[in-house]
Amino acid sequence: MAESICRALRDGALEGEHAPALTIKDSIASPFGFHVFCHVLSQLSSFILAGKSQSGGLVVVSFSRSPSFYLELLKNKGIDVVSSDKRIQILDCYSDPLGWKDRLIEAGNFTALSHEASNSSTANVLKDVKHMDKLYNSIVERGKGLIGGGKNRFSVAIDSVDEMSRHASTSSVAGLLSNLRSHDQVSSIFWLLHSDLHEARVAAVLEYLSSMVTSLEPLHQPANGHRGDLENLSLIEHNLKKGKFHVRIKRRNGRVRVMSEEVHIEQSGISFTSLSSEGAINQGLVPKVQFSLELSEKERIDRANVVLPFEHQGNGKPIQIYDGRRSLADSKHERQVAATEKVQTNEDSGGGEIIYFRDSDDEMPDSDEDPDDDLDI
Amino acid sequence: MVMEDAEAPHHMLLLRNFMSQGLVHNQPLLYASPAIDPRGFLGTLPSPAASKDEKSHKHDPDQEKGLRIAWQYKKYFGESQLNFDGQRDGKHEYSNEFDLRKPLERHFLSAQRVDCVSIQDSPNLSALQDRSATFLSQYPRNDGSISCAGRIAIQSFSAPQCAYSNMEWDMLSFIRSLKSMVRSSNAVALITFPPSLLSPSFCKRWQHMADTLLSVKAIPDEDKELSQLLTGYQDMVGFLNVHKVARINTQVPVILDATTFSIKLQKRRFLVLECLNQAPVDGSSGTSYGTSGSCSGSSKTGNLDF
């Protein structure tokens, strides 16, 4: 499933369509969002450098990590950003997002440390809309710088939408993301969100804006109120290494593909495996109704013991059908016959009987003869 | 009003049919959307399909259900309409069949007929209100003939990228004033909005504002349970629920045979709405799948279900 997401980002957008957008969502219970983000980032980078993707470049907007972190990360995956900086650019919104250093320098209290050329994007927190516009322009500028003009496209990775939402209103963040998606030269875009840092509406907005949503959930839910319980601790520990990876993909035809996987965090990185059966959602084919449609074991046995009235029991006796008109106490003869049938059922460990109460004894029977008499079932 | 599903663009299918229908029948259109360039959407409007059989001819601007109305009437009129030759002299018959693969001819999209507004950047709704008022003033309702009717289509009204999208009371009062303007003029309006982005109380208020309320829903792909429960699951792309039907100037309630329809794209060209057919299932309670909780999703279907 993670592969299909990376492939979707690699394949990019069709002509006249919005670029595919991925939201990676996690929470404190299963905090692997950043691992997934790095995984997707390195996959997409390798696709881009190998020339297998629609996009010719990648702009990484880093809010929550320093650009050197990403350089290291990609180097570890075998991608040398420096030599391939024609393809990958990192927009540094981490070192000095609010322009404090500049102001301190102006005030004369600070000597600027040399750092790699960064383009701080937030000059003024208060002017929300302008701020997002500036960020948008810087991203697009960087992207265009990577790929040149024409029909080429670039991809965008946003480290953390949480940081963006701290500086600007939800509608301006949404505006930025949707404008990026509808830009002719953007091939694909993905971002990370920590859902418990926001109100539910923010997560809903981001899901509305994206074409693929991945969410991370813990494999096991620890029981409430028993903190410190040994069992609970081991569960929590378990949850820190593994989790469930759910994906919802909005397909072009309007259907939604839902998939799930298990994700493991190891020293070497992250790995995805299909869900083990204990976690699998397998409700069978029984429709969801409010009564039980299945039989317990005892019920199964009892059912097997019921003697069906119209059937040969295979013991050579003539079939006598109890039609409920005459009560058992009335005639001995009938009782005997009925008794043989009863005896049969009693022989088979008892309990399997069909009890038939006729509506009214005064009712004229349709016919004294059973129309199916000539059938030999 | 159409309640969108955040996971599927089916409301766009309804919008396209609504807009094309108006343009083809000489009904000017005001289109507002959160895109920066709404005119681009006009290129995707479908052209009327070449129809082989006659369609029913009921032109009532009060009821803007469009697609659904003709579908219903076809059921009742059937044979008798086949002899209705209609006007073949250049005027289009009132049609609900549109070919999504054939774009609408350019001359329908001229500026006199279509006015486009982008609602993304406006900080409040006064601009949109003014444009709507100007547009609607051209179609006053006279006691006499219906000379010309107008259509307003607003797409994704509370989309998050619009600057006013957190001003919930303002949006509500815009809808109310639009409704009153539309009532007093010869026009209909179609507004689509994503209910998942509104607070629940406002969502309810907006639903009450609507004369006719529809909702569209996405369906999961390759869902074994659904394919067992529904016939024709492979061709379906979504569900359409009718929550409320306009009852203006009448005391007779509209009782629908069915409130849930499946949305299918026949040959990827024609939008088809069909009543849901539940495949026979052992022991099922027999209720239509569409009204059960899991598919229609939200609690909205509760009070407004007919």
UniProtKB/TrEMBL annotation, chain A:
<dbReference type="InterPro" id="IPR027417">
    <property type="entry name" value="P-loop_NTPase"/>
</dbReference>
<keyword id="KW-0539">Nucleus</keyword>
<comment type="similarity">
    <text>Belongs to the ELP5 family.</text>
</comment>
<dbReference type="Pfam" id="PF10483">
    <property type="entry name" value="Elong_Iki1"/>
</dbReference>
<keyword id="KW-0819">tRNA processing</keyword>
<comment type="pathway">
    <text>tRNA modification; 5-methoxycarbonylmethyl-2-thiouridine-tRNA biosynthesis.</text>
</comment>
<dbReference type="InterPro" id="IPR019519">
    <property type="entry name" value="Elp5"/>
</dbReference>
<feature type="region of interest" description="Disordered">
    <location>
        <begin position="335"/>
        <end position="377"/>
    </location>
</feature>
<feature type="compositionally biased region" description="Acidic residues">
    <location>
        <begin position="360"/>
        <end position="377"/>
    </location>
</feature>
<dbReference type="GO" id="GO:0005634">
    <property type="term" value="C:nucleus"/>
</dbReference>
<dbReference type="GO" id="GO:0033588">
    <property type="term" value="C:elongator holoenzyme complex"/>
</dbReference>
<dbReference type="GO" id="GO:0006400">
    <property type="term" value="P:tRNA modification"/>
</dbReference>
<keyword id="KW-0963">Cytoplasm</keyword>
<dbReference type="GO" id="GO:0005829">
    <property type="term" value="C:cytosol"/>
</dbReference>
<protein>
    <recommendedName>
        <fullName>Elongator complex protein 5</fullName>
    </recommendedName>
</protein>
<dbReference type="GO" id="GO:0002098">
    <property type="term" value="P:tRNA wobble uridine modification"/>
</dbReference>
Automatic annotation (TrEMBL), chain B:
<keyword id="KW-0819">tRNA processing</keyword>
<feature type="region of interest" description="Disordered">
    <location>
        <begin position="42"/>
        <end position="64"/>
    </location>
</feature>
<comment type="pathway">
    <text>tRNA modification; 5-methoxycarbonylmethyl-2-thiouridine-tRNA biosynthesis.</text>
</comment>
<dbReference type="GO" id="GO:0005737">
    <property type="term" value="C:cytoplasm"/>
</dbReference>
<dbReference type="InterPro" id="IPR008728">
    <property type="entry name" value="Elongator_complex_protein_4"/>
</dbReference>
<keyword id="KW-0539">Nucleus</keyword>
<keyword id="KW-0963">Cytoplasm</keyword>
<feature type="region of interest" description="Disordered">
    <location>
        <begin position="283"/>
        <end position="306"/>
    </location>
</feature>
<comment type="similarity">
    <text>Belongs to the ELP4 family.</text>
</comment>
<dbReference type="GO" id="GO:0002098">
    <property type="term" value="P:tRNA wobble uridine modification"/>
</dbReference>
<feature type="compositionally biased region" description="Basic and acidic residues">
    <location>
        <begin position="51"/>
        <end position="64"/>
    </location>
</feature>
<dbReference type="InterPro" id="IPR027417">
    <property type="entry name" value="P-loop_NTPase"/>
</dbReference>
<protein>
    <recommendedName>
        <fullName>Elongator complex protein 4</fullName>
    </recommendedName>
</protein>
<dbReference type="Pfam" id="PF05625">
    <property type="entry name" value="PAXNEB"/>
</dbReference>
<dbReference type="GO" id="GO:0005634">
    <property type="term" value="C:nucleus"/>
</dbReference>
<dbReference type="GO" id="GO:0033588">
    <property type="term" value="C:elongator holoenzyme complex"/>
</dbReference>
